[in-house]
Amino acid sequence: MAEVGQYITFSTARAASAAHENPEKQALVGKDKFNELINRPVLKDLFAKPDGSWFLLGTTQPGSAPKADIRGGFEGSDFSNEYSSVNSEEIPLTGARIVFVPRLLNIKIAFLGSTSSDSDTGFSANLTAFMIREPTQAECWAQIKQRNDAILSLSNTTYKAMGGATSSKYIPMEDNGC
Q1: Could you tell me if 54 and 75 lie in one domain?
Q2: Nearest partner of 105 among 47, 43, 54, 56, judged by Cα
Q3: What is the pTM of this model?
């Protein structure tokens, strides 16, 4: 079941990383993908039954609404504060994280006791999928405008004459605006 949870985490991160209008909409697409997968009939009984399941995904308490932690790196929202041994300047720590609780393993064995130190919560693990977020439409257009302004500021270029010599006449028509 951990592999199924990891696949759901990867699918969530992949959906949230695709380009969109803004980072909030990118994260919303990822959350929608997570909810779509976790609520499939074949998985809902295993992960999200209101009265409790053998496994929990996205929550540590039975009956709580499952959720995915999606961090796209926009305005400092990433996992870099949790991985101190990794240089986040070199490796972007963005993607999705979903908590996984195998409640099936939280048992009490006669004469031996509990299999976990905290019998209420049991074992849990973070399933994480790192994925680099694609730029949003607004970020692409800002970069394209900055590049066009830099080209217009060059002294020896025929682009000024061909491009109209002002950035107000430029209309970005690159592939998907990027």
Answers
A1: yes
A2: 54
A3: 0.73
